[in-house]
Design a protein that fits this description.
The protein is an alpha/beta fold. The protein has 9 helices and 9 strands. Strands 3-2-1-7-8-9 form a 6-stranded parallel sheet, sandwiched between helices. A 3-stranded antiparallel sheet has the order 5-4-6, covered by helices on one side. Strand 7, helix 8 and strand 8 form a beta-alpha-beta unit. It is globular, with a radius of gyration of 18 Å. The mean pLDDT is about 95. It binds ligand BJW. The site of ligand BJW has 36 residues, from loops.
Length: about 240
């Protein structure tokens, strides 16, 4: 099979072995924090400092986090695809920076990034490495209205037009380390199937929509993704 246009979707499972924590697994982030409090615009309006504390801790954890073999394998795949004149888009739901640290460049953060902030008052956005507090002043308008530049429930994920365009034209769609619980990402496999693409799920265990994929490989991302990429690279042709 010839794969010239790929779209890869990653979720928290790809970063689990880098210590970033998943959301819905046993002991996951949503078992320790109420998502209504920390991942909705309403929660932020009710108690912004609680939300800042939640994201400050996760932003701090990024400093020592290193990409694992799954991140490196996806970066290797991007280089192999480019060398063969093919197209690859890596869409991540993750707000960490581990794909970048591994060298991925054709990357879209559909749920935003921990290391970016947005001003609720003037709309400016920018890179941010430090803790945020309710009185942290916006560098442009001076108000204390900065928020993490992440996508909460009820908000529109980033890059949707570009993502749907690339899925409509892809011949391979691969979903990696995501539970398939959160839309619109969970629906991408249907778009890919409509486009006639081959669909693959790589995950620790079958996700809730595993049956929607033509192929599945299961186990820790560091092994499964690395092996799958090695198999695929041998079959990439210009
Ligand atoms: C391993 C592993 C290892 C573990 N190796 N694997 C129907 C249709 C459309 C929308 C909706 C709908 N019903 C409801 C909605 C709205 C809502 C939604 O989906 N709700 C559901 C809960 C039902 N969606 C939204 O509100 C979204 N916006 C929206 O829909 O706008 C309107 C719109 C409509 C139509 C088109 C376009 C737009 C916004 C969703 C925002 C999600 N935000 C969060 C927080 C981001 C910031 C932060 O990080 O704090 O994003 S929630 C959280 O979930 C985070 C993640 O990106 C996201 C997905 O989680 P993920 O990555 O799948 O993690 P887990 O923990 O669920 O799964 C981990 C997987 O890894 C598991 O399968 C493990 O087995 C596996 N694993 N270790 C490999 N070592």
């Amino acid at each position: 099979m010839k794969f010239g246009r790929m779209v890869l979707l990653t979720g928290a499972g790809v970063s689990a072995e880098s210590g970033m924590g998943t959301f819905r697994d046993q002991g996951g982030i949503w078992t320790r924090h109420r998502l209504e409090d920390v991942a909705t615009p309403e929660g932020f309006a009710r108690n912004p400092q609680l939300v800042h504390d939640f994201y400050n801790a996760r932003r701090k954890a990024l400093k020592d986090a290193a990409p694992n073999p799954a991140h490196h394998a996806l970066s290797r795949l991007e280089r192999a695809m480019a060398a063969a004149g093919n197209e690859l888009l890596l869409v991540t739901q993750n707000v960490d920076d581990l794909h970048e640290k591994a060298g991925s460049q054709s990357l879209l953060h559909m749920h935003g990034e921990l290391k970016r902030v947005a001003c609720v008052s003037c709309g400016v956005k920018g890179a941010w490495d430090d803790d945020l507090f309710t009185d942290t002043e916006c560098w442009r308008c001076g108000t204390g209205a900065l928020r993490p530049d992440v996508v909460w429930f009820g908000e529109m994920p980033y890059g949707m037009d570009a993502i749907y365009d690339r899925i409509a034209a892809c011949d391979l769609f691969v979903s990696i380390g995501t539970s398939g619980e959160v839309y619109p990402a969970a629906g991408f496999v249907h778009e890919a199937r409509q486009a006639g693409a081959h669909t693959v799920e790589l995950n620790l265990e079958p996700s809730v929509n595993a049956r929607d994929f033509r192929e599945g490989r299961y186990g820790p991302a560091s092994q499964v993704v690395d092996e799958w990429v090695s198999d695929l690279i041998g079959r990439i042709s210009p």
